[in-house]
UniProtKB/TrEMBL annotation:
Organism: Candidatus Caccousia stercoris
Biased composition (Acidic residues): 303-321
Region of interest: Disordered: 297-337
Listed name of the protein: N-acetyltransferase domain-containing protein
Gene3D superfamilies in the cross-refs: 3.40.630.30
Residues in coiled coil: none
InterPro entries: Acyl_CoA_acyltransferase
């Protein structure tokens, strides 16, 4: 059996095994797609796929931890019982181990009886599960902008990133990566963003607010970051309204917009301007990677207090119970015997 990295050159072999969104932006920093190739009497065939992302999470100010987050796991029916799932998981842990500094593996498994065997499979790999909410939806741009949250002028001198001073923007983006819960790969993400819809609020050459909107090759828009450096709610509203106006000028109203919120703060914001949106109930899984897989000698160890803080943040204030589940939308897979 061969486990390979899925690239633009070979993705056609695996595209039927996962939603198209996971094959978009394969070059995106921190995103990994692994494919399994097995062989039987008929020859070689694509047997399974695993999608994950390496991301930075922050339970509190000045506390940063790196997590490997499973997004999708699938094994072809003809390959079940041949160790494909185990081979993909082994490669998953090997890759995040080489990344360095990874403390936790996370996943979200939708609440459905058919996923029970998947959870049992992941438990064999050290995951424990509890229940959590995730806000995730895709809706037309026109429906999103019809909300009163986006009506009216921004009220602040917000400008597109395409109109922002490039040197100052580069410097301030680097500064933003030092903030709690902000992805450290923001500079690498900029080329994938719509620079007309993405926007910023400047005070001279100092950034006061920033909104990044990803333009996906599958045709959707996805807000990646909306952050203010102050507690003034007008900044967030101004950024959202400006981005909405620019999107309205540039795109048709049926343009899909994907919204994903996994933190308490983001969920509070989305419930404010989409009050009818209901969260998805998930089995949230966490695996203490340090306790499962050998770490590099100089890798920092996660203290008991740090682990409690991470889990408290990840579960949005819920006490973790025996049997938890983490940060992914994943397909059905039967437990490997």
């Amino acid at each position: 059996m061969l486990i390979t990295t899925v690239t633009c050159e070979n993705k056609a072999l695996f595209e039927s095994m996962a939603p198209a969104q996971w094959f978009d932006l394969l070059e995106l920093p921190g995103r990994f797609v692994l494919g399994a190739i097995d062989e039987d009497d008929q020859g070689q065939y694509a047997a399974g796929v695993l999608v994950f992302e390496v991301e930075e999470i922050s339970p509190e100010e000045d506390a940063y931890l790196i997590a490997g987050t499973l997004r999708w796991l699938y094994v072809e029916p003809q390959a079940k019982g041949r160790g494909v799932g185990d081979a993909l998981m082994e490669e998953f842990f090997r890759v995040i181990g080489e990344t360095g500094g990874v403390h936790l593996a996370l996943c979200d498994v939708p609440m459905d009886a058919e996923y029970n065997e998947l959870c049992a499979f992941l438990e064999d790999w050290g995951f424990t599960f509890s229940i959590g909410d995730v806000f995730e939806t895709t809706l037309p741009l026109g429906e999103l902008l019809s909300n009163s949250f986006f009506s009216g002028n921004p009220g602040l001198p917000v400008v597109s990133l395409s109109e922002s001073p490039s040197l100052a923007l580069s410097r301030e983006i680097d500064r933003y990566t030092e903030l709690p819960s902000v992805r450290s790969d923001l500079p690498e993400l900029l080329p994938f963003c719509d620079m007309d819809v993405s926007c910023a609020l400047w005070d001279k050459l100092e950034l006061k607010g920033l909104m990044l909107v990803l333009a996906s090759p599958n045709g959707s828009l996805e807000p990646l970051l909306m952050r203010s450096l102050s507690s003034d709610p007008r900044i967030v509203m101004g950024l959202a309204r400006f981005a909405g106006q620019k999107a309205k000028e540039k795109y048709p109203m049926e343009k899909p917009v994907r919204l994903v919120c996994r933190t308490q703060a983001a969920s509070s914001l989305i419930s404010f301007f989409l009050p009818d949106m209901q969260p998805l109930l998930m089995r949230r899984g966490v695996c203490d990677y340090a306790g499962l897989w050998p770490q590099e000698e100089n890798a920092p160890e996660l203290s008991e207090q740090e682990e409690e803080e991470v889990l408290r943040e990840f579960y949005e204030g819920e006490e973790p119970s025996e049997g938890m589940s983490g940060d992914a939308s994943m397909s059905e897979e039967e437990r490997e015997e």
